[in-house]
Amino acid sequence: MLKQFNVLIKEYSDIANDLAALAERLENPALFNSFKRQSEKIKNTEFHVVVIGQFKRGKSTLINYFLGSDILPTGVIPITSIITRIRYALSPKAAIHYKDHRSMATDIRQIDEYISEQKNPKNVKDIDIIEIYYPSDILKNGVVLIDTPGIGSIHKHNTDEAYRYLPEADAAIFLTSSDAPVGELEMKFLQDAKEYFHKIFFLQNKIDYLSLKEKRESIAFSKEMISKVLESDIKLYPISAKQAYEAKQSGETNRLIESGMKAFEEDMEIFLLKEKGHYLLTSYEEKLYGMIKELEENIDFKTTILNSPVQTLEQQLSLFRGKVKDTATLKKEALALVEADLKEIIEDLEAQIKEFRAVQAEEIKERLESIFDQNKEMNGKDLPKLLSQKLENFVEEAYTDWDKRQIESLKQAYHGIIVRFTGKLNQGIDLVNEITYAVFKLRLAEPIGEFDLIDKDTFYFKFGSSSPAFLGPRLRDFLFLMPKGWRNRIILSDIMKRVDEELEKNGNNLKWDYVSKIKDSKYIFERAYQGHIDDTVANIQGIIQKTMELRSQKKEDIQTQLLYYEQLRDHLSSIKIRMEGLKEA
Q1: Fewer Cβ within 10 Å of end Cβ, the chain: N or C?
Q2: How many domains does the chain divide into?
Q3: pLDDT on residue 315
Q4: What per-residue confidence (pLDDT) applies to 585?
């Protein structure tokens, strides 16, 4: 069995090298580099496990747990912007690989300078991949962990990076979170990702956020959603990566078991010991067939260009430019509808806050009056202070509870609008793809993804002074000279006025926070969409230029080029026959 495994590994490695050589002959450096990586991976019998999921799900924290050290940067905002590959080594070290093929060693403690979106925005440092070497048991025997940027953050290039690595991975850890239900973006990503993997581990992080009842409901919902996409039952591991990491650091075995990580870790170890070899060969075989398909499409693309009359190409390209203009018009029309929908959300929000304020004013006044009656014997200094503090507590308590409910409703309303908006815009992108496919036999324009309401929180409670100073220093001094009955009536009257003032002031602050979230989210989405269209057009214009250069060659040169591509196609066919022979052996 081991001998047969080694023979297949050698054959697959040789085939990957042959395919890389073909990519080089096709003058496609991106494919060549990707295929060379696959060749090295097969040669070293590496098993790449990619950690995927939406941003802020805790992917980097999970990997830090496996490493037993705080190596990868973590935080409450989207952090990881670069794919990070983690391999076994006797001592910790790191290497930065740039897109221009330069590489340099770096201190492992400095990698956040390159990984994080904050310190390397939109990958301005032009990094291709970061490699970390670390003495962790899980990385032994060829296992390589891959940390990917989170999908669905406001940084679209992060989602693109996450997608980029899928074809090179052999298995996946798909991470969801208990603090937010499984969303459409995650389901779409899983739908796209499932074709690359035969083995996916499903984890639901942050279970320590939930009560036992909430945990059961959340896990059942996640399992149902994921099973629908995969069309099969799944096993979902409820975990707390943060709790597991802390327990591992402090040596608290019971807390580690409570985190749920131990159960997952044991199952993963069994898989790596007993099933990895089978999945490895299956994964390598599929990767090689995928590489063959990419080369066939590349050859089809080049031969289509060379066989197409210049006049036909120019007509199709003119059509394409028209479709790009149509997309801009479509965006303008869709934005007008979005503006109207968002205005309706804001107006509805204002009405709800006003209604809530009126109800709360009555309740808070009743509660304050009750406290006043129970403490009317207090002195003129302490009674106003007590009532003021209680008022602030009641207002904060009321709006905090209301905010938790309202924000979910707001997110759903916003998401519904954006789904309709992206649907409209993607119709335009589909039209663009029809043209590019007719010309190049390639669909060059990717659909725009959905953007949820941003999580930034600018709301804070603002109150008047919680000391008796709200009565004014002179009046406060005069109160001590008044009969207790008069004094108390003034104190009660003043605090009742403040109920309406504080509810209105903080209600307006909360409304402004919601409006800011909506407007900023819309602005970010607009910019991302426009950037997406601009990048697509720039990419296609580059192909247009190359098209015309190829087509401007002499007829004899074109025939020579076509013959060359047919020879490459024949070579590919012989590799496919070789692959079929290995399957039968």
Answers
A1: N
A2: 2
A3: 74
A4: 59
Q: Which segments of the chain have a pLDDT < 50?
A: 1-2, 75-80, 152-159, 454, 458-459, 465-475
Domain containing residue 195 = 46-274
Strand partners, 422: none
Please give the DSSP secondary-structure letter assigned to residue 454.
P
- Both tokens assigned to 74: 């973590």
Give pLDDT, residue 451: 53
State whether 157 and 253 are in the same domain: yes
Assess contact for 452 and 180: CB atoms under 8 A. Answer: no
Same domain, 335 and 412: yes
For residues 452-485, one letter each, b for 16 or more C-beta atoms within 10 angstroms of the residue's C-beta and e for the rest, the string is: bbbbeeebeeebeebebebbeeeebeebeeeeee
- 446 dihedral zone (left: phi>0; alpha: psi -120 to 50; beta): beta
Evaluate whether residue 267 is within a structural domain: yes
Read off the tokens for 257.
């078991």
Provide the token pair at 166: 């899928």
Q: Which helix (H) or strand (E) holds 402?
A: helix 382-440
**pLDDT value of residue 204:** 92
Residue 355 one-letter amino acid: E
Question: Is 182:63 a contact under the CB 8 Å cutoff?
Answer: no
Q: For residue 160, what are its two tokens? A: 């693109």
The residue to which tokens 């959340």 are assigned: 218
Largest Cα span, the chain:
112
